[in-house]
Amino acid sequence: MGVVGALRMNGKFRKRNSKLNIEEEIKRIELQTVDPLDRIRQIIGVVQVSLTSLKTAVAGYQFRSAEEEILSLKYRNRRFPVC
Fold this sequence. Notes:
mainly alpha
């Protein structure tokens, strides 16, 4: 199963236990008896697919209310303080 195939199910990325899925996929790759550089490339592929999935989830998130969005920006994201 390829990198993308291992992290997808029915065309959608698994959302539950995604960290566990990523860790399991990396462990599976590490056990392979292929060239170390090939293993590294495969692991990078797993991470790239995971980051793409995360970006999609974050970009598609809909706040339940304006208040939730404001509080999220005000208290959770310390890199961009709200005046």
